[in-house]
Amino acid sequence: METISGFINLNKPSGLSSAAAVSKVKRMTGIACGHMGTLDPLASGVLPVAIGNAARLFNYLLDKEKTYRAIFRFGVETDTLDSTGAYIREGQYVPTAAEIEAVLPELIGNIEQMPPLYSAKSVNGVRAYMLARQGKEVSLKAKTVRVNEFFLVRNEGDCFEFTIRCGGGTYVRSLGRDLAAKLDTCAVMTSLVREKSGYFTLENSIRIEELNDWRANLIPPEAVFDMPSLDFDASDANRIKNGQTLPFGGKDGLYKLYLDDEFYGIAEAKEGRVRAKAKICA
After folding, report:
1. CA distance 281 to 264
2. Helix, coil or strand: residue 17
3. Which of 159-163, 209-213, 255-259 has the highest mean pLDDT?
4. Pair 280, 271: CB distance under 8 Å
C-alpha cells in the first residue's frame, strides 16, 4: 500500500478556521492531516498542512520566521483585539504616522508579550478562547517572542498597514494592542495575511478550490528543511531503524536523514554519536 507523506502549502481564505481548512484537505486527500501555526478565522494566507506522517516533523519547523501584512485600526478596542469582537471602546485617539514610527523600535527584538484572552493558548487543558466565551477568568502568562521587523507601509484615515517579520508564537493582534498602548490609545486588527512561514510562501501556495490537484502540489518532506544531510547504507540502516546510535565525526546538530538514498526523517548528532530523532515511516 502506498504511503504518502508531504506538505500542502495552503492559502487559507479569511472567514474559515484553520481546523476547517485542514478538514477540507483531509476530505480531499483521504489521509490524516495536521496544520502548523494556527491562523485566526479573520486571517488569510500561508497555512502549512502536513499530509500523513509528515506531521511528525512539524516540531522542527516551529522556530522558522514568519512574515505578515497586518492592518490595525486605531482608536477602538474589542475583547478579541480584532474586528470580529465586541467593542469595548470607540472614538479614542488616532496617532499620526510619525508618532507610530517613533515607537515601533520599542517592539523590535526579544520582547515580552501577553497573548490575547481569545486565543488558542491552553489553560489547564482548555483553550483560552473557550473559557473567555464562557465568561470565565482566563489567567495567561507573558512570554518572550522575537520580532525581527515591524514597519509602517501606509495608512488611510485611522487604519495603518504594517509588515511584520517575527518568530513562532508571536500574536500579531497583541502587537497592535501593545503598539497602541505605547501611544496611550487602543487598536484592533482588521486584516492579517501571512505571506511566509519558513520555507512556505504565499506565492507558492494553493487555494482550497485547487485541492483537486493536490498530488501535483504535494511538497516532499525533505524539501522544507534547510539543514545538512546524512545518508547511511543498508549495513547501518537497520541499526538506525532500531533506535541505535552510530559513531559520527561531524558537528553536533540536526540533519536530514537518508537511508539508502531514501528520506527517512530527522537525525540528531551529539557528542560523537548520531541517531534518528524523528521518522516519517510507520
Report:
1. 7
2. coil
3. 159-163
4. no
Query: Any residues with CB less than 8 A from the CB of 256 and at least 6 apart, and which?
Result: 222, 225, 227, 228, 229, 230, 263, 266, 267
Model pLDDT, residue 1: 43
CATH, range 66-197: 3.30.2350.10
pLDDT score, position 38: 86
Q: Compute how many other C-beta atoms are within 10 angstroms of the C-beta atom of residue 262.
A: 11
- Residues 211-219: what's their mean pLDDT? 92
What is the band of 275 on the pLDDT scale with cuts at 50, 70, 90?
A: very high
Catalytic residues: 40
User: What grid cell was written down for 184?
Assistant: 496611550
List phi, psi (to 5°) of 12.
Answer: -70, 130
**What percentage of the chain's residues is helix, strand, coil (to nearest 5)?**
25, 40, 35
Domain boundaries, the chain: 6-62+216-223, 66-197, 227-279
**pLDDT tens digits along 18-28:** 999 999 999 99
Provide CB contacts within 8 A for 226, sequence distance 6+.
199
* Domain 227-279: assigned CATH number: 2.30.130.10
Report residue 56 CA to chain centroid gap: 16
